[in-house]
Amino acid sequence: MKISKKFLRLMTMFLAVVFFTSVIAAVPVSAETPYRTYTVDGYGRVMETQTAYLPNETIIKFGEEFLSAPNDLFVTDDGEIYVADTGNSRIIVGNEAGELVKIIGEGILNTPRGVFVTEDKHVYVADSEGMAVYEFDEEGNKVNEYGKPDSPLYGDKLEYKPSKLVVNDAGIMYIVCDANTNGIVEISPDEGGTFLGYFGANAAAKDPMLILRRAIATDAQRAKMVSNIPSTPDNLAIDEKGLIYTVTSGEKYDSLKRLNIAGKNLITDCDAYDESPAAVAVGNHDNIYVASKKGYIYEYNNQGELLFVFGAKDDGSQRVGLSTQVTSIKIDTKDNIYLLDSDKCQIQVYRPSEFTSLLHNALYLYSKGRYTESKEPLEQVLKMNSMFDYANKAMGRALFQEENYDMATSYAKLAKDYRGYSDAFWEIRNNWLKKNIVSVIFAVIALYILIKVLKYADKKKGIFNKPREIWEGFGKNKIFSNVMYAKYFMRHPSDGSYGIAREGRASFIAPTIILVVFMAEYVINKYLCGFLQKTIREGRYELVSDIGTIIVVIIGVTLCNYLVCTINEGEGTVKKIYTYFCYSLLPYIMLTPVSFVLSHVLTNNEAFLITLVEVVMYGWIIVLMILAIKDVNNYTAQETFKIICLTIFTILIVALLIFIIYVLWAQVFEFISAIIGEVVYRLGN
Known about the structure:
alpha+beta, four-stranded antiparallel β-sheet, 17 helices, 27 strands
């Protein structure tokens, strides 16, 4: 049987299609997330990292019941989802599959905006327009109604419009009420609702200018000013320990708070914050979630350190995972995130990625004191992203608990964890001292005896006569003599200034040598000082910029001071002014080695010694400069103060002129580049 070539070609194409289809089918497909995930490194920089949560599904209805302007939700341990369906005046209950379980409060609720469910399935609802908190049992029957407290401590003129609430194990309700700036309303269920007081009030804004204006204003003017009153919390949550979490718009670093029973905030510094937080939730691993109104989700550890930030505002693309008006966030037992979008009337569900699940596992093990076990998931996290600083920090803390202090300092360095490094270094130093303290004492005693013996031998035999002759020979050299004169100037600034002004001690070479030594010490101290004192990122060097800045500053200060002194009949020349400014830097040259050595042996608790050395050093430099300006130019104290102020003003004016020239030149350069580009484009066509 003869087979045609056309038939063979068709069969070949068919087999190829089958082959490629089978290959593609075997490859798992995952849609790219419509947002990026970021974290904050040890330097405070926002860095992109692995996707922390993937958009899993969107719930728009339960059964055939759609949502209308929903404002709050709650997810129970068994997976039931309670939604404050505000537009329909009800609480709708469904499950993860989108099936309707039941409806609560129809015909009773008015505008339910907050919902909370206890372990025994009692449902508490904050109804704003109904001006009450309603309690329903598991079957949906109304059990209690808590209206406005009749206590005079609440405030007779204050309205009672509950918007969000949580309930602790004792049944005490913590309620956020619209426009109530006194704090969270605390109500006990006893006797039909007993007002216990206000809890966790925000502080009023501390704007110094506003305080000053109010202090000097008249009563009539103060009456016209905007009242400086504290902000009302936007939302709240509660953890298993009974700690209350709140978020408040416009509070910046205090937008997220974790309040103990006394109302004290336990989060003293938040790594990153959102100007308009909408909701807060507590995770399963001692972590915290904050959702912004624009759809961004922040995850923190219990100290307020940022783990992840992801999500974004929907730009009209209607992609899964994007939101427009977030009002609530909740976490289920599987670490899935439920984000309620009031504008789109839907619930976005996010599931954690493998990267996040490993990190959560490590957090859980560490929080339970199982430090060795926490290392395994942390190692896997670091394999995925070795630059994820929080994992490096957690690894360092786990190694510290195992008393592996050397490795703990290594991971602390990677994470820029100064506190962790300080704690581990203290232990290393303590262990070293225990082993070597006797040897150190004997070495000090031996050194002391050696010095005494050498002094005695020199006195009797003159063993150092030759070195002294060589040193005295150097002293006859004018340049060397002028360099050494800086030491005399540092100890006796008035007499030293007289030598610069009248005895020919002014020069360009000797001060330049002092300046070069100053620059060398500055660079060494900046890049090689101890880790706890370092202010620049590891591996980053800006030598040209550092040296150039010092040179520009010393030349600029010298010339500006010369111009001012010349106008005001000062006796200083450029050479004299340059000399005393460079000589004034000698305290830095003398004391910086001390602070450099201390930076390598001190911990955070002892760093005040370095600060003390620096205060003495910079104070000494300032005193030398002031006395030199006075004595070299033959000014009075009043004239000296005037000259200093005029010099500073001149420096600012010169800096402004340089900035203006730089901006104008940049614009001219950009204009010329654009013209050249246009010419090249036209010639090419």
